[in-house]
Amino acid sequence: MGTFSADHAAHLRPGHLLAAELARSQRAAVATLPVLRHLLANDGPSLVSEAVVARVRGMLRDLATQLHAGGRGPAAVSDHAATEIDALVVQLGVHEALLAHIHTLALESQLAERFEQRLSLDPVLSPLLQELIASDDQAVAELSMNVLAAQTRFMQSQRRMELPLAELPADLFRTALQIGANRDQPGSAAGLAALMASYDEAATRLALLERLVVAMRRAVVACLAFDRAGLALFAQGLAALAGMERAGAIHACHEQQSPRLALGLRAAGLDLAGIERQMLLIAAPGGWLADIAEITPQQARARLGELDAIALERG
Amino acid sequence: MEQAESFAAARGLTDERDRLLIADTPLALLQERCGGSLPGTLAIPELLEQVQHARAIGLRIARAFSAFDGEDMISGFVRINPRGIEAGGGCELLVESWQRSPAAFASSHALAHYLDAIDRASAEITLRLDARQHVQTIGVLSADGAGLADALAAQPGALWSDLIALPDIAHRRPLHWRLLDGAACEVPGSARNWRARLMPIAEYGGGREPLGFELLLIADESLAEEATPPASATREDSRLFARTLTPALRQPLARIAANAETIRARLAGPLHQDYCHYAATIANAAQHLAGLLDDLADLEVVEAPGFTTLAEEVDLVDAARKAVGILGVRAHDRRIALHVAGADGTVLARAEFRRVLQILINLVSNAIAYSPEGSAVWISAVTTENGRVAVVVRDEGPGISAEQVLRIFEKFERLGRDSAGGSDKGSGLGLYIARLLARAMGGDLSVISREGEGASFMLELPRAD
C-alpha cells in the first residue's frame, strides 16, 4: 500500500512520470529472477508454488466475473466483457490485503489436501468437528453443522478455483465492491447495492469458525491437537490462544514456517513435549526446537508480534 | 476463575450517534461497568469501534471481541447489523458466548492502552494541539464546555493552558507534556472538576518529539447531578465524601460484598473450603470499607462549620433499649448479655434522638466487640451530681490503660486493639464522631477505666426541664 500511494504522489509532479515508470520497470526486472528461481525450486513445497499461483489467479478472476455480473448471476461472456473482467482482475490484484487474503485461502486448501494425503485427515469433517456436532449444547451443535457446511462449500469452490464474493470478510467485501462500482456500467449499481444488502459476515466460513471457537470457551485447547482438529479448526484455535491472526496461523502450518509454528504453539501455552508432538504431525522440526522451552509463552507472543510488525513494514 | 455467563445472546440497539438505547441485562451491565449509562454512548471501546466500523462500511459484520470492564476481561462474539438511514441509522448488536476471565495484561503497555481507550470514550471535550501545545481544533460534547469553545473562538491558536486553569501546577508556560498529563483543571464556564489527558501524536516509528497532541478533558462528575444544585452550594465543595464519594462507592462495595457472600455461601456452586474463607474475608473487607465510608461521610457533616443538632426531649432509657434491640443479635452471637437499668420516662435529656441513638449504638457495639464471650454489658441512665443526665455503658472487657484513655477519642485512633469479635474492625472514627456529636448537643463523652477492670463510657447531656 505504501509504495503504491507513493507512486501516485509522484505522478502528480510533472517530469516525474518517466522516472517513476523507469523505477517500476527496473523493480520488475530485478524481481524476475528471484521469482523464477523460487518457482523452479524443486526442494519441496513452496509458499508460492505454481498451484497456489494458479488458485490465486482463478479466485481473482471469479471475483471479477461476479463483480462484472453485478449480482445478476453468470451471463454469456462477450469479448467486450472479457476485456472488462481482465481489467477488474488487475485492479483486484493490486489491492494487497485482498491479495494476501486470497493467497492464504489458496494455501489453506492446498495444505488441507496435503494433510489429507499424509495423515488421512478429512479437510472437511475432522474428528473434533464431529464431536462438536454431537455436542449436548444445542447451540454448539448447530453452529458446528454450519461450520461443516461452510467448510464443504469452501473445499469445493477451492477445487474449482472459485471464491464467492459473499465469503469475503466485510472490509475486503467492501473493497471488492468499490472496485466493481468504479466502472460505468448501467444497472450495475443496483446489483451491487443488492449484494451489499444481502451480505452478512456472520454467514462466512471464517466468521463461523471464529464463532465456534469462541463458543467452545476453555475447550478451545482441544483445537491444538492437529490430528483431531484438522487444519481449519487448528488454525482458528491457535490464532485465538496465541493472539495471532488466523492467516498467520495458516502460514505457520506451512513446512517452511515451522519456527513460527513452534513460537505460536508456545504462545498458546503448550510445553516442549506438546509442541514437539504437534510439530511432528505438521512440519518436521529442526534442531532449534529445544530452544523453544527457554521462551515463556508471553515472550513467544511478543516475538510473534514483532515478526508481524516487520512483515507490515515490509508490506 | 472463569465464569461462563451464557451462550444465550444479549441484544442491544444503538442509534446513529452510537448511543446504546436498549440492551439486555449482560450487555447493560457491561456498559455500566465500563462507565456508561443506558441510554448513553456505547462505553465499551472494543464494541464502539466495531459499531462505528459497521456503520461506516454499511455491512453486517461478525467478530470475536474482548473488553476490559475494570475488573475482568469479557470476551464473546458480536454480530452487528447496521440499520439503514430510514430505520434510524443505528446498529443492532447481538453478543453471544459471554466469557469472563481475570484480566491478564501482557504488559503495562496493554493496560495503558485500555486506560487510554476508556479516557477517549469518556472525554466530553477533546482538543487537538500542535507540537507547541497550541490549540488547533476543539470538539465539545457537553453544554458546560461551550464557554471554552467561545474563549477559543475569541483567541484562536492559544496555548491550551492559557485557557484552562491548572490549579495544581504553578508554571503557566508550556511545560513538558508528561508533567501535564493527568493534571486537574478548571474549564471556564463549568463548575465541574476536570482532568486533562495529554496524549502525544507521534510520528510513525519515530522516537522524537511528538508532532502534536490529543488533549482530552474528562469531567470527574457527570453533568446530570449538577442539574439540581444543592441549596448551600458554597459549602459543598468540602463535602467530598458525603456528596460524591459515598454515593459513588456504596454501590460497587455493596456489589462486592454481595458477590463475595454468594461465593462464601456456595450459592454459585461447590467450592473448596479455603476459597469460602477467602470470600468471607473479601465480604468482611467490603463491609468494613462501607462502614468507613459512612463514618467519613458522617465526619464531614459533623466537622462542617455550622453543624447543629435539634433540641428535643429524649428519653434516655428508651434510647438505650432501642440501641440494645438493634444490637441484640450481635450480642447473642457472642453470648453477651445486655442489661438496661432504669424505667422509661425517668431520665430525660434535651438532645437530638437520632444522634443519641447513634452514639449509644457506637458505645454498645464497642462494648460487645471488646468483651469476652459470655460476659455482660450494663447500660444505665442516671442523673448526675451537677444536675445533668447521663447514660453509662459498662463492660467486663480487658479495660483501657490510663495512657490509652487520653488518646481514645482522637481521630483514627484504634489503640492497636483487635476486637475479640473479629467482624467489627472499626475505622477509628466512631468514638471521635460520637464525642463531637455529644459536644454539639451541649454534652460530653468520657471514659473511666482501669486496665483489667472493664471500661465505663459516659454520655452526658443537658437535662430536659
Number of domains of chain B: 4
How big is the Rg of chain B? 29 Å
The CATH architecture name of the largest domain in chain B reads: 2-Layer Sandwich
- The pLDDT mean of chain B sits at 79
CATH topology of the largest domain in chain B, by name, is Heat Shock Protein 90
* Estimated helix fraction of chain B: 25-40%
Given the structure, what is the number of helices of chain B? 14
Kindly name the structural category of chain B.
alpha+beta
- How many DSSP E strands of chain A? 0
**Range of strand content of chain B:** 15-25%
What does this structure look like?
The complex is a heterodimer of chains A (315) and B (465). Chain A is 70% helix and 0% strand. Chain A has 315 residues and is mostly helical. Chain B has 4 domains: 1-103, 2-Layer Sandwich (Beta-Lactamase); 125-219, 2-Layer Sandwich (Beta-Lactamase); 224-308; 312-461, Histidine kinase-like ATPase, C-terminal domain (Heat Shock Protein 90), CATH 3.30.565. In chain B, helix 9 (240-264) runs antiparallel to helix 10 (273-303). Chain B is elongated and about 85 Å long. The termini of chain B are far apart. Classes of the chains: A mainly alpha (315), B alpha+beta (465). The interface between A and B is medium-sized, with 27 and 23 residues.
Topology:
The complex is a heterodimer of chains A (315) and B (465).
Chain A: H1 2-12, H2 16-40, H3 50-69, H4 79-94, H5 96-119, H6 127-133, H7 138-159, H8 170-181, H9 188-198, H10 205-215, H11 226-242, H12 246-252, H13 258-267, H14 272-282, H15 297-314
Chain B: E1 3-4, E2 10-14, E3 19-23, H1 25-33, E4 40-41, H2 45-57, E5 61-68, E6 72-82, E7 91-102, H3 108-122, E8 125-130, E9 135-140, H4 146-154, H5 160-163, H6 177-180, E10 184-185, E11 194-201, E12 212-219, H7 223-226, H8 233-236, H9 240-264, H10 273-303, E13 312-315, H11 316-333, E14 337-341, E15 348-351, H12 353-370, E16 376-383, E17 389-394, H13 402-407, H14 430-440, E18 444-449, E19 455-461
Parallel strand pairs in B: 14-16
Antiparallel strand pairs in B: 1-7, 2-3, 2-7, 3-4, 5-6, 6-7, 8-9, 8-12, 10-11, 11-12, 13-15, 16-17, 17-19, 18-19
Helix pairs in contact in B: 9-10, 10-14, 11-12, 12-14
